Amino acid sequence: MNKQQTNGIQGKPKSELWIPIAYAIFYFPTFEWLNAHNFPRYYIGCRLDDLIPFCEWFVIPYVAWFFIIPAMLLLMHSISRPEYRELCFMLFGGMTICLLIYFLLPNGLTLRRPVSLNNWAARLVVAIRHTDQPTNVCPSIHVASSMAIFDVARSSRAMKQRFPKIRLLFLFLCPMICVSTLFLKQHSVIDVCCGILLTAVLRGGITRWHSARRAQIPSPQDDPEI
Question: Fewest CB within 10 angstroms: 78, 122, 167, 182, which?
Answer without folding.
Answer: 78
